[in-house]
Amino acid sequence: MKYIDEYRDGPIAAGIVAEIRRVQTRPWVLMEVCGGQTHSIVKHGIDHLLPEGIELVHGPGCPVCVTPLEMIDKAHAIARRPDVIFCSFGDMLRVPGSDGDLFTIKSLGGDVRVVYSPMDCLKIARGNPEKQVVFFAIGFETTAPANAMLVWRAQQEGIGNLSVLVSHVLVPPAIAAILGSSQNRVQGFLGPGHVCAVMGYSEYEPLSERFKVPIVITGFEPLDILHGVLMTVRQLEEGRAAVENEYSRILDRAGNKPAQKLVASVFEVADRKWRGIGMIPQSGYRLRGEFREHDAEKIFDVREIDTREPESCISGQILRGIRKPHDCAAFGTLCTPQRPLGATMVSAEGACAAYYAYGRHLEKHKAVAELIPSTALTGAA
Asked: What angle do CA 358, 361, 367 make, to 5 degrees?
C-alpha cells in the first residue's frame, strides 16, 4: 500500500539493523513510550531483529492500561445507576475493575453504549433528556482535544444532562517519574509520535537536559522504530542527550496550536494517579472550574472508592519497564485476552495483549522467532 509499504521494506530494515550493529559498542536499554509502538515491535519481531545488547522495554503508553483501578471502579459505579447512559470507547468495556467490567454491567441491565467519537454523546444526550449521559474521557494528550470539544459544545448548547468522567494523563511527567525511580534501567526513549503530533516536543527538551537522556520522537511503522533506535543509540554512543524528531513527516516541534488552545480552555493540569505507578504530580488534566457542571465525579459523588488489585498481576511493573509480560506467572494461563486479570492484557495497546496476540506465550516462540528473516517485514499487514 502506498505510503505504508515503503516503511516496511525488509532490505532497508536489514541495512538499519546492520548500522545499529556497527555503531553499538555496549549494551543499552531503551523504552518505547507508546502502546502502538509496542504492538508494532512485537507484531513485526523488531526486538528479535535488533543486535544482542539492545533491549527494548515497554513503557506506560497504553491509555487504558494506566487508567487507575480506582477510576475504573468509579466508572462502574456510575454505569450501574438506572438514570445513566454510560458511553465509552469499546476498549474500556472489558477492562476489569474490582468487581466485574462494563460488559457485565450491561448484561445486568445497565445502559452502557460504545461510541466511536466523543461527539456521539451529544446526540445521545439530546435524544434522552430524562437521562444523565456520561462519557468516560480517558487517554493521553492525543485524545484530549476531542474530549475538550465535547465539553465545550455541551456548555455552548446548554446540554445539562451530559458530563464526562475525566482520567486524562500526560506523558512527560510519567517519563520523569520513571527516570527518577531507584529501579530505573532506561537509558534512552522512543518518544510518542501521536502525542507529539498534538503537543509538539518542546516540553521533552527539559527532561532530556535534566536527566541526560536521549529522547527520539518516533513513528509506528517498522522502519520508523528501527530508525528511532539507531538515532537513540548514536546519541548514547556519542555521549549526547537531546530530543530528536524521527517522525518529521508528520509532526514538528510546535505541534497543533489550535488543539492545544482548545485543551487549555477546557482542562487544567492536576495531579493524577497512574495504574502501576501511583500518584504523579501535575501529570494529568481535570476540568476547569467553569465547566464543573459537566464533571461526572462531582455530579455523582464518587470521590472515595476502595479498590482491590489482583495479587498475581504484575502489570504495574510492566508499565514501568521493570519486567516484561512473560515474567508473569499468570501470563497466558490464568490471564488471557478472554479472561484478563489486568488492563495490559485486555487493552488493544497493552503489552501483555501484544505478547499474547503474536505468540510470545508459546514455549516454542523463542526458537521460531530466532529464525525470522529481515525480509519478514515486507508486506506485513
From this structure: 80
By the 8 A CB rule, do 113 and 79 touch? Answer: no
Q: Is 324 exposed, middle or buried (0-12, 13-18, 19+ CB in 10 A)?
A: buried
Burial 157-194 (b: 16+ CB within 10 A, else e): eebebbbbbbbbbbbbbbbbbbbeeeebebbbbbbbbb
Pairwise CA distance, residues 256 & 188, whole Å: 25
Range 184-188 average pLDDT:
96
**What pLDDT score was predicted for residue 366?**
47
Q: Would the pLDDT of 3 be above 80?
A: no
Residue from 214, 248, 249, 213 nearest 231 by CA: 214
pLDDT at position 372, please?
43
Does the global pTM surpass 0.90?
A: no
Q: How many CB atoms lie within 10 A of CB 153?
A: 15
In this structure, what are the phi and psi dihedrals at residue 377, rounded to the nearest 5 degrees? -75, -25
d(C-alpha 350, C-alpha 110), whole Å: 27
The answer as to CATH 3.40.50.11740 being correct for domain 1-309 is yes
CA-CA-CA-CA torsion sign (107, 112, 117, 120) = positive
CB 186 within 8 A of CB 214: no
Q: CA-to-CA distance for 15 and 5, rounded, in angstroms?
A: 16
Contact 89, 102 (CB under 8 A): no
- Of residues 341 and 196, the one with the higher pLDDT is 196
Q: How confident is the model at residue 108 (pLDDT cuts 50, 70, 90)?
A: very high
Judged against a pLDDT cut of 60, whether residue 376 lies above it is answered with: no
Check residue 364 and give its pLDDT. Answer: 37
Phi, psi of 281 (to 5 degrees): -60, 140
Q: Indicate if the pLDDT at residue 340 is higher than 90.
A: no
Q: At what angle do helices 222-238 and 35-43 cross, to 10 degrees?
A: 100
Domain limits, the chain? 1-309, 315-369
**Phi-psi domain of 158 (left: phi exceeds 0; alpha: psi -120 through 50; beta: other):** left
Least confident of 89-93, 165-169, 211-215: 89-93
- Cβ atoms of 116 and 84 within 8 Å: the answer is no
Burial letters 345-374, b for 16+ CB under 10 A, else e: bbbbbbbbbbbbebebbeeeeeeeeeeeeb
